[in-house]
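Lecture 7 notes: from sequence to structure.
We start with the chain below.
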Amino acid sequence: MEILDASGLGHVSVMIHLRSATEDDAALLLAWRNDPITRAASRSTEPVEFAVHLQWLRSNLSSQAVKIFIAEHDGRPVGVVRAVHCGEYSELSWTVAPVDRGKGIGAEIVSRAVSVIGVRPLRAEIRSENNASIRIAEKCGFVLQRERDHFLFYQLV
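Predicted structure tokens for the same chain:
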């Protein structure tokens, strides 16, 4: 584990450890994915069935272009970050566990993932009403590039 200072983001340091996701995380990830707040912030807002989710997870875990990290604090899962390499950039997406929202750890999770991924530029597509993820992106140095159809497109170079 490493102590993450969130790159001077002005938060109290939180010990965040990232580990690669496995198929054993399927139920946890599905619960987070189907959380109403997560769904409202996602590209697809419909609930996902377990079989569909498991197929998606297996496909992502076997892809060389995708990295999925479970963020842990004191050995407990507190969020997930997914990076998809898209040629000239990687797209980053994240979810803070529902029980851990509002505790100021989202930026620490994303900042840690950014340092581990190491690929630039990184992009994030965020719904314009998702204020929590907007704050996280901006605290981590992502800059707004454009807006389209209720989505904000951020980039970190």
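Points to note: The longest strand covers residues 76-85. Residues 2-156 form a domain with the Aminopeptidase fold (CATH 3.40.630.30).
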